Amino acid sequence: MGGAAVDADTESSTLLLPQTTPTKAPKDSFHLAYTVYFTLGAGYLLPWNAFITAVDYFAYLYPSASVDRVFALVYMIVGLICLLFIVSFAHKSHSYVRINVGLALFVVSLLVVPVMDVAWIKGRVGLYGGFYVSVAAVGLSGIADGLVQGGIIGSAGELPERYMQAVVAGTAASGVLVSLLRILTKAVYPQDAHGLRRSANLYFIVSIVVMVICIVLYNVAHRLPIIKYYNDLKREAVNEDKEEKGAPTRALLKSTLWDIVGTVKWYGLGILVIYVVTLCIFPGYITEDVHSQILKDWYPILLITGYNVFDLVGKSLTSLYLLENAKVAIGASFARLLFLPLFLACLHGPQFFRTEIPVTVLTCLLGLTNGYLTSVLMIMAPKTVQLQHAEIAGIVIVLFLVVGLAIGSIVSWFWVI
C-alpha cells in the first residue's frame, strides 16, 4: 500500500504542477501528512457524532423532545449559513485562521454538556432549559463545522487525491469510534440516570481530547515537506494569475466563483442527493421508527454501528479502487433514491421486510454506498479546476454536501409519516 501511495502522490503532482515545472513532489515520510488529514477528518465530525450518539442521555432528560431530529436540523442549518458566508468571503480570510477558530469553537461546544451536567442538570429529568442550552451548543458546533470542514476539504483539494481520501475516511472513523464507545458504555454502565450521565460525559471528554490533538496536528502540518511543496505551488499559481490578470476585482472574483460552481456543479449535485437520501433515513428513522422485540434498545445502537462501519469501508475502498467515470458515480448517487421506498417497506410493507435482517442489510448498504460515492466525488471535484481554485472548489462541494444534509434533515420529519 505504501508503494501505491507514493505512486499516487507522484501521479497527482504531475497533474497539479504547471507544465514548465519538472520538480518532483517530496515523499510523505511515514505517511505523516496522510495521518494528519485522517485525524482532522475524524476530528471535525466527532463533535456531531458525540451529540447524536448521546441520544439515550438526552432522551432520558428530555422525554418529550425529538432530540435526534432537532439536533440534526439545527446543526445542518447553522453549518449551511456559515458556509455561505465562507464561500462569499473566502478571498478575504485565510483557511489557517478559520480552521483554528473552528477547532477552538468545537472544544467550547463540547464542554457545554458535561459542565452543565455537573453544575446544573445533575441527572434531573424535565429541565428543558438544559435542552435549549444543548441545542445552542449544537448550533455553535455547527458554526465550527462550517469553518473547519470547508477549510480542511479545501486544503485537501489542493493536495494529491489520497489526502482527500484520508479526510473522508477520517469522518467515517469518527462515527465508528463513537459507536464503539456507545456499545462499551451500554454494556458496562447501568441504563439508569447515573450510567447514562457517565456514558454521555465519556463521549464528550473523548471528543475534547481528540479536538486538542487536532489543534496540535494542524498547527504542525504546514511544516511537513509535502504540505510546504503544494502550498508553494499554490502561491506560484496565484502570483502568475496576478501578473496575467492584475489584482482581482470584485467582479472578477464573483465571475471566477461562478465559473468554479459551474465546473463542479454535477459533482456537487451528486453529493447533495447522496446526503438527502442518507439523512432522510439516518439517524432519525433508525433510532425512532424501527423496533426489535429480540434486540430491544440494542437495536438502534447496532444499526448505527453497522452504518458507520460500512461507511468507513466505503470511504476506504477508494484507496484501492477509484471509480474515474464521473457520469457513473453521479448516476449511482441518484440511484440511491431507491433506498427510500425500500426503507418505507420496512415500516409498512410485508412482514418479512419489517424483520431485523432486511433492515440491517439495507442499513449497511446505505453506509457502504454513502461512503464510497462520497469519497469518489469529493476526490474528483477539486481536480477539475486549476490548483489556485482547488480550495474554493472544495468549499463549494462542502456547501452542496451541507445543503443535502439540511434538506435531508427537514425531509426526515415527514417522509415516513
UniProtKB/TrEMBL annotation:
The portions of this protein that span the membrane are 36-58, 70-90, 96-113, 125-143, 163-181, 202-221, 266-286, 298-322, 328-347, 359-380, 392-416
Quote the subcellular location field of this record: Membrane
One cellular component (GO) term of this entry: plasma membrane
- Report whether Transmembrane helix shows up as a keyword of the record: yes
Q: What GO annotations for molecular function exist for this entry?
A: nucleoside transmembrane transporter activity
Report keywords, A-Z.
Membrane, Transmembrane, Transmembrane helix, Transport
Q: Where is the signal peptide?
A: none
Superkingdom to which the source organism belongs: Eukaryota
What topology does the record note for this protein and the membrane?
Multi-pass membrane protein
Q: Which PANTHER family does the UniProt entry name for this protein?
A: EQUILIBRATIVE NUCLEOSIDE TRANSPORTER, EQUILIBRATIVE NUCLEOSIDE TRANSPORTER 4
Family stated for the protein in its record: Belongs to the SLC29A/ENT transporter (TC 2.A.57) family.
Q: Which NCBIfam families match?
A: 2a57 (TIGR00939)
The identity of this protein, by name, is Equilibrative nucleotide transporter 1
Q: Which organism is it from?
A: Escallonia rubra
